[in-house]
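Support request, please re-run this one:
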Amino acid sequence: MSAARRKTSLPPLPGLPARTGKRRPDRIADEIRQEVAALLVAKVQDPRVAKVTILRATVTPDLSQARLYYSVFDEAAAAEAAKGLASAKGFIRSSLAKNLALRVVPALIFEHDRSLAEQEKLERIFQEIKAGEEE
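Re-run finished. Output below.
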């Protein structure tokens, strides 16, 4: 690799913030997650999404799709929450277009994140094992 093509880490210019090193898709995913979470609380009137929490978001490198992972307080209502999110998807995307400075708003894909339920299940199993050992 020639010296001209080698990337060097320069100190930030005085008065300007230092670069955080985050890639643009990661920054946009964070913005989308925050904005969608705020929209679900303040603007979306559908009671099916009242107990939905947006946990994380990922965006494809070309910014064409955003995958939003959510959990539901009551796991029994997960199917209804998925239907509510699907019906609110157009409203959420149009609100993102108004509130974010993006040329093209990514297509939204909502995925139910079951990791919290799995974690609780494992904790219960460990508690049962621990209680069995103490007896």
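The mean pLDDT is 86. The chain has one domain: 24-134.
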